[in-house]
Amino acid sequence: MTDxxxxxxEGIPLGCVFALVAxxxxxxxxxxxxxxxxxxxQAYVAAVLFxxxxxxxxxxxxxxxxxxxLIASPLMGLLLELLIFRHLRTAPPxxxxxxxxxxxxAVPQFVAILLGTEPTFGVKGIWWNDxxxxxxxxxxxxxxxxxxxxxxxxxxxxxxxxxxxxxIGLRMRAVVESPRMTExxxxxxxxxxxxxxxxxxxxxxxxxxLLAPLYASLVPQNFTTLLxxxxxxxxxxxxxxxxxxxxxxILLGVAQALLAGYLPPASxxxxxxxxxxxxxxxxxxLLFWPGLRTAxxxxxxxxxxxxxxxxxxxxxxxxxxxxxxxxxxxAVGGIVLILAMTTFSERWVTIFTTAVxxxxxxxxxxxxTGMAGxxxxxxxxxxxxxxxATAQLVSVFGLAVLPTMFVGALVAALVGxxxxxxxxxxxxIFLSLGTLAIALVFETVIVPLGWVSGGAHPVRVPxxxxxxDDRSFLLLCVVILVIVSFFVILVRxxxxxxxxxxxxxxxxxxxxxxxxxxxxxILAFAVSAGIAGLGGGLLATQKHIATAQDFSYFYGxxxxxxxxxxxxxxxxxxxxxxxxxxxxxxxxxEPLGLNQAWxxxxxxxxxxxxxxxxxxxxxxxxxxxxxxxxxxxPARLRAAPxxxxxxxxxxxxxxxxxxxx
Amino acid sequence: MALLDAVGVSKRFSGIxxxxxxxxxxxxxxxxxxxxxxxxxxxxxxxxxxxQLRVDAGSVTFDGRDLTRAPVYRRARAGIGRTFQxxxxxxxxxxxxxxxxxxxxxxxxxxxxxxxxxxxxPSAEELAxxxxxxxxxxxxxxxxxxxxxxxxxxxxxxxxxxALMTDPKLLLLDEPSSGxxxxxxxxxxxSLRAVQAERGTAILLVEHDVEFVRTYVQRVFVxxxxxxxxxxxxxxxxxxxxxxxxxxxxxx
Lengths: 661, 252
Prior knowledge:
The structure holds two protein chains of two kinds.
Chain A lengths: L1 H31 L6 H18 L4 H23 L9 H23 L17 E4 L2 E4 H23 L1 H11 L1 H6 L4 H23 L8 H17 L5 H21 L5 H21 L3 H4 L23 H24 L3 H26 L7 H19 L3 H23 L4 H19 L3 H4 L5 E2 L9 H24 L1 H11 L1 H6 L4 H27 L1 E2 L6 H14 L4 H19 L8 H11 L8 H16 L29
Antiparallel strand pairs in A: 1-2, 3-4
Helix pairs in contact in A: 1-5, 1-6, 1-8, 1-9, 1-10, 2-3, 2-4, 2-8, 2-9, 3-8, 4-23, 4-25, 5-6, 5-8, 6-8, 9-10, 9-11, 10-11, 11-17, 13-19, 14-19, 14-22, 14-24, 15-16, 15-22, 16-22, 19-20, 20-22, 23-24, 23-25
Chain B lengths: L3 E10 L2 E11 L4 E5 L6 H9 L6 E6 L2 E2 L5 H7 L1 E4 L11 H13 L4 H5 L7 H13 L15 H14 L4 E5 L7 H18 L2 E5 L3 H7 L2 E6 L2 E7 H6 L1 H8 L4
Parallel strand pairs in B: 3-8, 3-9, 6-7, 7-8
Antiparallel strand pairs in B: 1-2, 1-4, 4-5, 9-10
C-alpha cells in the first residue's frame, strides 16, 4: 500500500505538466477552433529562452521567469494569432490542424538556427533550490517537482477565477461558436481571440519552463512527445472541459508512475509499454470516449460569409500547353537521368536515389490526402512496416529482395486497411490524431521488438541481384517510381478516384448516390499504406539496412508538411516535394553556408498556407501562371472555351450537411 | 401496396419529441408534398427516411423491403434519390462528371483492378444515358462546365440529374425552391414534371412554398410540432382549418 502511495505521488508532477499542456490545448480549441499542435514547439521555445537567460546569461530566477512566461510566451501567442490563425477562422478544423503542424516542424528548427545546437546541460528550474527535498511523511518531492505542483495549482485557480468572474470568459466561449455572430453582438472577436491565444501560450510557456529541468538536457523531441501525451488528457476532457483536462493529465502521470513501479523493470512490457501509455490511452479514448467525436465539432453558422478562396480550376490548360509542359517535364527528367547514369559522382547518385525513393513514399500522401482528403500522420510508420517486413522476410526466409519488396508493400497495405477500420469511425482532426497515436504506439511498442526491427541489431537488406551498384539501383528506383506514378494516376482517373473525389466534395451527397464511404476509404488507406510500404522497402534496400529512426513518427509529420506545401493533388507535386527535400540542402543550403534546419523551417512555414490553398501553395501559383501563359497564347492554341456558362456564378458548394427546420 | 411506407416514425432529441408516430406513404409514380411551419419536424422526418438519423420507433419500408436500420448508401441503392436544401455538389468536377459518377455507382461495375488496368473509362452506354438525362434537364450545353460556374438554380438541377442517374423509384426533394427566384422555381417545376412524365419517378417534396406545392403535388401531408395533423388531396388539405391554424395561429 505504501508503495502505491509512493508511486502516486511520484506521478503527480509529470501529471501536472501534462495537465498544463492539456488545459492550454483545450483553451485554444475552445476559443479558436484550432487544435494547436504547435503547442509543444511553444513550450520548447519558452524552455530554451529560460535556459538562455537563467543559465547562459546568469539572470536571477524571478526576472527570467517573468520575461519568459509572463511576457515572451503570451507575445508569441499574440503573434501566432495575428499572423496566422486570425486569417483561418472560417477554415475547417483539419486545415487549422495542418497549419499548426507546419509550426510544430518549423519553430524548434528555427530556434536551433538562432541559438545554435550546442548541448544544453544543467537546465535550471524555477524553485529556490531545485534539489532541496521536501518530506511529506514518508514521501519525498524535490524542488523541481514542488515547482510543478504549486505552479499548476496556482495557474488553474487563476484560470477558474477568470472564467467565473470576468466577462471575457463568456466572450471567449461565444467567439468559438461563431466569431461573426459575436461581432454582431458588439464584441470585438479579434481582441477576444488574441487574448485567449495569449492566455493559452502562457500555459505553454509555463509547461515548458517546468518540464525542462525534469530532463537532462533540452531536446525538442521531449516537448513534442509531451504534447502528444497531453492530447490524451485533452481528449479525456472531450476538448471542452478544463477541470477534466486537469484531472486527465494528473491521472495519466500517475498511471505512468504506477506502471513503472509495478512492472518488473527489465521486462519488455515495462520498457515498451510505459512510454507508450499516453498514446495507447489516446487511441482508446478517441475510439471509445463517448461524446468526443460528435460534441467537439462546432461549425460557424456564418462561415459561408467569406469562405476560403476557391482553387483555380485545374483543367484550364488547353491541349497545346498540356503537351508543352509534359514534353518539357519529360525532357528535363530524361536529361537528368542520363547525366545521373553517366557523369554524376557517387554522392549525387545517392542524393538522386533518395529523391526518387522519397517520391514513391510521398505519392502515398497524394492518395490519402489529395484523393481521400484525410490527413494521415502515420505514413512514415507504414513505410516502416514495408521496410521491416521486407528486411525480415529476406533475412529469415532468404527470399529474393525485389519481389519481397512488393510483398512488404502488401503487408503494409494490410496493416493500413486494418488500422483504417477503427480510425474511419472518427472524422477530420480526430482521424489525424488517431493516426498520430498509432504512429507513436508502433514506434514505442512494436518497432523495438526483435522480430520487427531486430531490436539492438537492425536487419541488413542486400540489394537485388543485378542492381547492386548505385547507378543501376537508381535506374531500378526510377522504374518503380514510374510504375507507381501511373498506378496513382490510373486510380485517380478511375472509379475509385471519382468516388473519393465525390466523398471529398460532399460525403452525404456521395452516400445519396449509393457510394459506401467506409469501403472506399479503407481501400484508399490500404493503397496509400501499400505505396508507402514499397517506398520504405526501397529506402531500406538503398541503405542496406532497416533502422527504426528512418521511420520515426516525426518523419511522418514532416512528410505531410512536405507534400502539403507543394501539392497534394498531383503526381508531380509529390515528386517535386521529394526532389526539393533531397536537393535543397546540397544545392542551396550548403553553398550558402546555411544550416540544414532551414529546410524544415521553409517547408513548415509553407504548410501553414494549407488552409488557404489546400491544393498546395506551389500548385496554386503554378495554376495561376499557367493560366497567364494560356492567355498569351495565340487563340488557336488555347483551350476551347466553355460554350455557355451561367452569368451568375453560384456560391461555393456547401460542404455542411443539414438544414433548418 | 405503396412504394414507400413510413409507419409510426418517432424521434426524440434528449427529451424533446421531434417526431411523434408519423405515418406517411407514397405510391408509385405519385407526387406527394410534406408541408408544415418552421420547426414542425419536416427535415428530421426526411433525415429519418434517408437514414441520416436513426429512428427511435417505427419502421420505414420501401419497395417491399424493410430499410429502418439500413445505412444511407443502401437506401440509395434500393432506389431512393434525393436533393439537398443547401447544395451538396462535388467541388472541381464538371456537370457531366457529377452524373457519370452517379451512373457508375448505380451500375456497381467499378473495380479497383479495372482502375489499375485502365479499363474504367465510361462506356458508350453510360455516356449515352448521361447525355439523355442532361438533355431532359436542359443541361446539355453546360455539360463540361466546372460546377463552380453554375447558378443556384442550375446547381439544383444538377442535383436532380445526379439523383436521377441512380434510377430512383422515389425522389426526395428537400425544399427545392429555397434560394431560387420565381422564374427559376417555375423552370425547376417544369423539369420535374418532365422527369415524372418520362420516367414515372415518384416524388416526395418537402416545401415551404405553398404555391409550389399547390400546383405540383396530388396529395399533401401536414406536420406540426412533430405530429401529422392532416393529410389528403392537395385542394382539401390546403383549405382545411387545421392547416390554417398551424400556419396562422388559433384565432383565425
